[in-house]
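yo

u said u wanted the structure for the complex thing, so here. seqs first:
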Amino acid sequence: MSQAEASSLAHTPLDRWHRDAGAKMVPFAGYEMPIEYGSIVDEHQACRTKAALFDVSHMGRLRFDGDGAAELLDRLLTRRVIDLPVGGVRYAMVCNQDGGILDDVLVSHLKTPSDQYYYLLVVNASNRQKIVEWIKQQLDDFPTVTFTDRTELTAMIAVQGPLAMETCRKLFSFDPARLKYYQATITDQFSKPAIVSRTGYTGEDGFELVVRAEEANRIWENIMLAGRDAGFAPAGLGARDTLRMEAAMPLYGHELNESTDPISAGLSFACNLNDRDFLGRDAIAKIKTAGPKRRRVGLLPEGRRPAREGCDVIGADGKVVGTITSGGPSPTLGKPIAMAMVDVEVADQTEFEIDIRGKRSAAVATKLPFYRRAKTDS
Amino acid sequence: MSRDKSKLLYAETHEWVDVSDEGGQKIATIGISDFAIEQLNDLVYMDLPEVGKTFDSGEEFGEVESVKAVSPLYCPVAGEIVEVHADLPDNLDGLNDDPYDFGWVIKIKVSDDSGLASLMDYPTYQKQCAESA
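structre next:
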């Protein structure tokens, strides 16, 4: 990387902390981000067995205030927002007119302590500018909506793992157990407003916090300190990727992109086609009626050699039937896992081969996700 | 046997080379430096060539994979493989713990030792590592 490239990278409010903790920093979506603090596998295991703390401040945070905000989002998103209760969080996609996925997002309906209502859209870091432009194109039709990009004024911290609840209960001024999965609230418990949502990207229970940028270090250190004896670990993008792969959560730029539609990606649950019109609706409805050309499947490559993104998937007749979209070793299962997009005609077959850089490996299809946590409470 | 890493030769691509003379024939033992192993982290897989194969200097002879990525292994000198550390792929922890003795990867009968001249000594290699770290 040239010096010019390095200096153009943004830094999260927790950048100094990561460096002091010995993190290996890498360029990611315009930011310098920690990929690991020592061992991806250890960080992965900490999240599965105790809890891990992730700096996800690179994700975009877009706020919509004013009358018409729900209507604007109803036009943008594949799921309806107007019926989203205060405190609700919903996973949806932003699609173009052809049904191609521009981003996958979380939308929250929030109420401030001074009784202001607004929506928060959390978008992928790599798509933030694109989505901001896309929103701006719609704003003329919604003159009463105030749209603000809050990304740089805030930080985002995820605490994930079986012990996250217990520790957050001690820290937060409200009982976080009253939040159900996919609910969010604004709390002033850190003496400053913070959004706490029971969401995450690891397959574990936990919370995502949006806090003011200047509060990020204090809150991060408080959680680390509170969880220290329980074995909390900071975790980087490397563990985040192996965790989300095991949970079969799609990642933009891998399973999702502008030439993939939500139906093929296996996300029809996140598209409500019949309750209103939205950008891309007609195209997605056509794909749903005709049936998608490809489908997302889970594969278990035999042996220990991981199949990586971009490897060809070979069908029974020896022809290429798809591509690996994400793949690597699964620390929890102790063997490689992979997700692939394959032709719909072969999507129910159980045996495939994968071309791993010129060598063929057998692989069997498996149900997704690869890992599902034991449910304890709501 | 205990190899002194400060007496070995190094390739830019982080392989170490230990050359010995066995009856007038140069045999190069090749491994991966501790710096590279530290950078790779969390090794999960290794792909090695068969005995008898020949490689040019700079040619890829195998792969080592970490949780995150695949890294090619490059042959620092030209020659024929005379021995492969076949137990290594099943003992990646051993490679991690002891890259200079237990962790040797292949032995090559050097066919052309001109490649040796372009390898670095330890201080030069250390300097390269310090600059890339």
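Chain A has a mean pLDDT of 95. The CA atoms of residues 153 and 213 of chain A lie 5 Å apart.
cya
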